[in-house]
Amino acid sequence: MSAPSATGSGGPTGPAVPLATETPKAKMSKRQKAKLSRGIQYAILIIIAILLVLFADWPKLIDAFGRVDIAAGMFPEVITMALKNTVIYTFLGFALGLAIALVVALMRLSSVGVYRWLATIYIEFFRGLPALVVFLVMGFGLPVAFDNFNLPQLVIIMIALGLVSSAYMAETIRAGIQAVPKGQVEAARSLGMSSSRAMFTIVLPQAMRIILPPLTNELILLAKDSSLAYILGSSVDGRELAALGRAEIVNTANLTPFIVIALAYLIITIPLSYLSRVLERKYGSADSGVK
Amino acid sequence: MNVPTTSASTSTPIIAIRNLQKSFGENRVLTDISLDVDKGEVVCVIGPSGSGKSTMLRCINTLETPTGGSVVVDGMDMTDLDLDIDAARTRIGMVFQSFNLFAHLTVRENLTIAQTKVLRRSKAEANRAAEANLAKVGLSEKMDAKPGSLSGGQQQRVAIARALSMDPDVMLFDEPTSALDPETVGDVLQVMRNLAEAGMTMVVVTHEMEFARQVADRVLFMDGGVVVEAGPAKEVIGNPQEQRTKDFLSRVLNPGQLG
């Protein structure tokens, strides 16, 4: 990890620190100062590494988190069931969230005041709630409140994740729609398109390129939020990564399963964040294509 | 305001604007505009910026909703709330200052999308119209290009072809050359000239005095939300009667000289 050297020093061309130039001692050139700053940062890194190696109780650590036999025992369920369920929950929640978000975003931009108002309330409400609370209400609150609220676990998880993600995505979609130049709608209307046709055939496809990278980020957040499904409890084959990890920790009285499921989450999230970066590079600079 | 804005012809005008008013909140942009345009006529609207000429043009296809008066195009009362405004707009082509080509679509798709989705033409039929109109503006080889790869002048010619592909009865031009590099203005004006010669009814808001003088049947000079002077192009531009028209023309025609 050489990240600190890139962020902290400001580089050889970075602005000089004003304090340093005022003190008479500061006779170093910018290049020398940058070198010194980099040196200090590396030194800190090395000291921390040495302290870790010397003082951490490695045998104990490995015994608690790195038991290969326990890790091996989690296969293949961790992939064939838990990872698969996490992916299913994430995508179902995302699909529902996207559908709600599109409706809310269009309401937000509606010429009808009441729609705008409702959409704003919805967004502020769900953006302000912790995902955990949404899961608890969906899973335990509503079944108590309504006797016949008896949805399958999968649907409850999907709705909870959909609600959690929709508020953010609605704002993203709204911003994307508003970034499309107004002249595009005017041209479409002047050709006889209705306002909704103009929205769906002209504006939204162009908004997509602005919306896609942040939506991919939302998908990553949602993959992680899907771990909250474990608090609802589940049938054995409905377990996603977090639920399986918890069960295995109880079974084995060891923390190694944490490491395994952490790695499994990374299998989902790292390709997604790579995708997000690719999309950003592809669409980021091409605003509307109009010169 | 007894400016004669109607032409001498006795046939029913294809565009009939009566006492048109438009305000944005407190701001009165159009005070009282009346204008008749006959079929096949080319009317150029000139005037300083902020005089309301673009707003007047945008009221014809109700991209701006008039706050008073009436606009009748081809027998359709554009201010009538019961009118199918989308159907009415298919008969009024519009060309914008900033082209407004659909950036995510190819030239072909730009030219065919409204034909197939709004006019319900078949793909083949829409393609035929697109090819014919793109040839008319001299850009047949750009059929499958994306708008972003074209120059401003090319984009504007594609925009004209897009409007023509709907087979409109009337074409509105809102400062079509104002956003162009000088060297591409000529191509766009030539396309408009051809269109005028082919008998298209055109209302053109423009700063191109030479184009107005040569191509327009009539010229309207607007200032402060009213039509100050109107008449045959050669008279309004060559021999203006109103002081405001004279001042404007001397500024536009001799930009180097101080008033």
Explained architecture:
The complex is a heterodimer of chains A (291) and B (259). With 291 residues, chain A is mainly alpha-helical. Chain A contains 13 helices and no strands. Helix content of chain A is 76%, strand content 0%. In chain A, helix 6 runs antiparallel to helix 12, helix 6 crosses helix 13 and helix 7 crosses helix 9. Chain B is globular. In chain B, helix 3 packs across helix 4. Chain B has a six-stranded mixed beta sheet with strand order 6-7-8-3-9-10, sandwiched between helices. Chain B has 259 residues and is an alpha/beta fold. Chain B has nine helices and ten strands. The N terminus of chain B is likely disordered. Classes of the chains: A mainly alpha (291), B alpha/beta (259). At the A-B interface, helix 10 and helix 11 of A face helix 2, strand 6, helix 3 and helix 5 of B.
Secondary-structure topology with pairs:
The complex is a heterodimer of chains A (291) and B (259).
Chain A: H1 3-8, H2 18-22, H3 30-55, H4 58-65, H5 68-73, H6 77-108, H7 113-128, H8 131-145, H9 153-179, H10 182-190, H11 195-225, H12 241-252, H13 256-283
Helix pairs in contact in A: 6-7, 6-9, 6-11, 6-12, 6-13, 7-9, 8-9, 9-11, 10-11, 11-13, 12-13
Chain B: E1 15-24, E2 27-37, E3 42-46, H1 53-60, E4 68-73, E5 76-77, H2 85-89, E6 92-95, H3 107-117, H4 123-136, H5 152-164, E7 170-174, H6 182-197, E8 201-205, H7 209-215, E9 218-223, E10 226-232, H8 233-238, H9 243-253
Parallel strand pairs in B: 3-8, 3-9, 6-7, 7-8
Antiparallel strand pairs in B: 1-2, 1-4, 4-5, 9-10
